[in-house]
Amino acid sequence: MDHHQKGLLLTALGVLIISPDALLLRIISIPADQLVLWRGLLNVLGFWLIVVARYRRHWFRAYLACGRAGLGCALLFTVSTLGFVLGNHFTSAGNVLVILASAPLIAALLSRLFLHERLPLRTWLAIGACLAGISLIVLDDAGEGSLLGNALALMAAVGLAGNLTLARSRPGVDMSPMLTLGGLGTALLALAWSGEVMLPDAANLGWLLLLCLVLMPAGFTLIQQGPLYLPSAEVSLLLLLETVFGTLLVWLFLSERPSDQGLLGGAMVLLAMAVKSMLDRRQQKSACSAD
Predict the structure, then answer these.
(1) What is the rounded CA–CA span in Å between residue 136 and residue 265?
(2) What is the tens place of the pLDDT at every residue in 112-132?
(3) More exposed terminus of the chain, fewer Cβ within 10 Å: N or C?
């Protein structure tokens, strides 16, 4: 398996793991400030346990190896998390998702500007098709929203793209351990916002543990390793599949059927990714034949 295929596999698996996020957020019923707080606290523990399991007695060295770039990744991960959660608080979820879908484009521009990476035309076309598809998925929920909410959603997109691009800037260095600090930053800011820690009831706590202690740390650890093998734009492009899979899970378990244009949008995203994958494989085979 070459580097590109490994990157696709890691990122896609991570996206599949976190895809129940939207479904579980519908099920969990606690105030927004407490949701962000517990999300951060449980993320800290979950990410740290994964780092210890992977690196064993050398787990602390894994943090030191990330250096200043790792601190930047942690900060940007916090920015993207807060922007997403607070964006949903101040504007419609549809507006947030449409703006967040610009992350691959932002990542491509950041990579071109700072890393001098050039993306093939097929990637740019896939970004455009996926952005159009995501827009169709959330069209019914999109509205004027608020300037603050839209700005927070844009902050989330920039934070996501910046995190993945910064991780790409350190070839061979796994930045996923620094997500522990990202969770810590989220928890501290949420605590400053709420001023208190409220223990959820047993049912909500169980769902929180599943989502924030297990699924999110496992999924984002895999996704954060994607830039080791793929351009950040491709990693963030694969992340758009979460919207498609998440919508399907909500439909399956909560019987919230997407609109016809939503189904069309999901089909556009999946088709764009399938065509891009096929063209990538054809390009790789041509390169191997030439060698």
Answers:
(1) 5
(2) 899 998 888 888 898 888 888
(3) C
DSSP labels for 122-165?
A: HHHHHHHHHHHHHHHHTTTT-----HHHHHHHHHHHHHHHHHHH
Instruction: Note whether 223 and 11 are within 8 A (CB).
Output: yes
List the end-to-end C-alpha distance of the chain, in Å, as a whole number.
Answer: 17
> Read out DSSP for 42-73?
HHHHHHHHHHHHHHGGGHHHHHHHHHHHHHHH
Which distant-in-sequence residues (6+ apart) come within 8 Å of 143 by Cβ?
91, 92, 94, 95
* 3-state SS, residue 225: coil
- 157: tokens are 């997109």
Q: Confirm if 123 and 234 have CB atoms less than 8 A apart.
A: yes
Q: Dihedrals φ, ψ of 101, to 5°?
A: -70, -10
What is the Cα–Cα distance from 284 to 278, expressed in whole angstroms?
10
Phi, psi of 232 (to 5 degrees): -60, -30
Distance CA 95, CA 79 (A): 18
The whole-angstrom separation of Cα 119 and Cα 170 is: 19
pTM of the model: 0.88
Closest CA to 190 of 88, 91, 82: 82
Q: What is the pLDDT of residues 77-105, one digit of tens each?
A: 999 988 887 887 777 666 777 788 889 98
9 Cβ neighbours under 8 A, 6+ residues apart: 1
Q: Which of 19, 10, 27 is nearest to 242 (CA)?
A: 19
Phi (first) and psi of residue 56, to 5 degrees: 50, -125
